[in-house]
Amino acid sequence: MRAWLLTFGLCLACPAILAAQAEDESVDATPAADEPNTDSEDRAPNADSENREPNADSEAREPTTDSDDREPTTDSDDREPDADSAPDDPYADATVADDYPSETEQATMPDEASEAPTLRYYFEGVRIRGNESTRASVIRHYVPFEEGDVLDPRSEELEDIEWRLRGTGWFSQVEVSLARGSRRGWVVIVIEVEERNTIVVSQLVAGISEGLRRTEDSSSDAVPYLGFTVAETNLAGTGARLGLSVLGSTRAQALRLEYDNPTLLPRGWRFGALGFFNNGRHYFGDGNVFVDCFDEETGMLRPDCDEEFRSKNIVVFYRRAGLALTTGHALGPNTRLQLGYQVEMVKPIGNIPTASLSYGRDPDNRRPFIPNIEEDLSWLSVLRTAIEYDKRNDPTMTTRGVFFRLDGELASSALGSSYEFLRVRTTFRAWAPLPWSGHSLRFSLFLGSVFGDAPFFYQFQIADLTDLVPSQVFEMQLDRRGAPNLLGTAIADMRVEELAGRFDIQYELPLFRGGRRLRRLNAYFNIGLLYLADPRALQLAVPGYSGAAAAPIDLTFDVGLRFDSRIGVFQIGFSNILGFLNLFDR
User: Fold this and answer.
1) Which of 6, 102, 147, 329 has a Cα-to-Cα distance from 396 of 20 to 30 A?
2) Total-model pTM
3) What percent of the chain has pLDDT over 90?
């Protein structure tokens, strides 16, 4: 009788035992099914470890279980949470899975597992490794989580941290992963960095510029120039940047001192300051210049001048000095708002020439020369704002990512400015890796417009659009030449204008990887189409041009080398060699 009762009781208990066992198995299976796959499809095609780009591997890395991972975090605010602070979540007591399912296993999982809620953890703190110079608090600034925040291993937030840290330029290698926290369901973000030299030459320009030609038969005045910017990009490990820029030439001299600190102001606002002094000259026209030789004092023509063509250019000498203050705040992991204010004084040196420029192919069709600069001391007061989206795998030797910037500058008499204008510019660049390791394509688009009476140094210059003549340095013109005009269009009459645009494609291939002094060496080839116009050219065609030639466009190209060294990233372009040959041939 007792045996029969015992057997009957076991039969009644069996369904409950089986149901409890099935429930335990389903709970164990759900986290494993929701764990991120370590075999991410976003892995960069470049297998080079030094140039390896951020991928989903790092953000979904299996949290480690060694004793070293249980050491206190570097974040002073990352205190061990008590039981009462844990959010109410069915996975709060879940541990990080020991094994992640592969893509094949995920595809064959039953629908019940695939429909289970996404596994999330709770952020406990940050553990930083490899930072010998950079302060841990500075690196912690780039982690947008607070204690107790819900963290999804499958989201892009962890990858964004890696992108942002790479974008600082302080590290040659950044890896972000997860480790177990001090209790179940809580995790620590582990950031491993490899620091690079932060005292760099961020800009180095050198060459020979062509000066004024007095007559059609005279030779050009060619002089050398040298400019550079040396900067400490991580001052005393605080993340602040301190830079000094110098330009030297017989035609132009410039001095700049800049400071930028991303953590100086509270609530994530950065602070920047810039002081500058420019002493230079600017060239207008290119073979279409007519100088007024009438002397008002004597009422006669000056003996050293006549009405005939004497010079290929008009030259304006001037000086600028000013101070700019900037700030900015992150709107997201890759988006930033920037605000700024600049005040400067401008003074021409000597008299502004009274002249005219022929417009079009008819030399008798002239328009007066107006450089939009006061004849005496004047002031510029400019408000600036910009929106920037930056998701590049490397800020210098980029192979994958997107960069977008839209900025506007407003000068008004209400701000105490002697000039009133609005300048708007937008830049978009996208990098696409190619199937061959390290090879990439870059697509770039620039558009700009000026409304109002902006001084000539705030207008768009042909030297900044074409690669075939020396570009401006620190907003100063060094070379008198205009557009090469390879297409024979109305671009020949455009020099300093209010509308500008450029589209180009650049192919880049690696030549060398590795080494302590020279990390990477790439060759590149760039070809593009540029546009520079007076707004009147949109309404009426430039006289003497018809059909496609009436559009003020031109081709540009460049071929050269880019290399990443211990002291900075440099680019050597050989397109100017064509200009040099033309210069010495005259």
Assistant:
1) 329
2) 0.70
3) 35
Hunting for tokens 């062509």 — which residue is that?
A: 210
Q: Tell me which residue of 388, 409, 405, 245 sits closest to 341, measured CA to CA.
A: 409
Q: Does the pLDDT at position 54 exceed 60?
A: no
B/e letters for 40-63, b = 16+ CB within 10 Å, e = fewer, are eeeebebeeeebbbbbbbbbbbbb
| Bridge partners (DSSP) listed for residue 173 | 194
List, in sequence order, the alpha helices (H) in 260-357.
none
Burial class (CB in 10 A: 0-12, 13-18, 19+), 393: buried
Structure tokens at 458: 């705030």
* Contacts with 19 (C-beta within 8 Å, 6 or more apart), sequence order: none
- Asked if residue 24 has pLDDT above 50, the reply is no
The 3-state DSSP class for residue 537 equals: helix
pLDDT in tens, 451-461: 999 999 999 99
Annotated domain spans of the chain: 30-195, 199-585
H/E stretch holding 466: none
User: Who contacts 409 (Cβ-Cβ below 8 Å, separation ≥6)?
Assistant: 382, 383, 384, 422, 423, 424, 458
**How far from the centroid of its chain's Cα atoms is residue 403's Cα?**
6
* H helices, E strands: number in the chain: 8, 26
Q: Tokens 């164990």 map to which residue?
A: 28
Report CA 15 to chain centroid distance, whole Å: 65
Phi and psi, residue 548, nearest 5°:
-65, -25
Give CATH superfamily name and number for 30-195.
membrane protein fhac (3.10.20.310)
Q: Return the bridge partners of 442, or none.
A: 431, 506
Q: How many residues does the chain have?
A: 586
- Across the chain, what does the average pLDDT equal? 77
More confident residue, 385 or 84: 385
Task: Supply the Cα-derived Rg of the chain in whole angstroms.
Answer: 32
d(CA 54, CA 52): 7
Check if the beta carbon of residue 37 is closer than 8 Å to that of residue 154: no
Name the amino acid, one letter, at 489. Answer: T
Please name the fold of domain 199-585: Porin (2.40.160)
Q: Quickly state the pLDDT bin for 205 (edges 50, 70, 90).
A: confident
At residue 498, the pLDDT reads 95
Residue 181: how many other CB atoms lie within 10 Å: 23
Tokens of 264: 């100086």
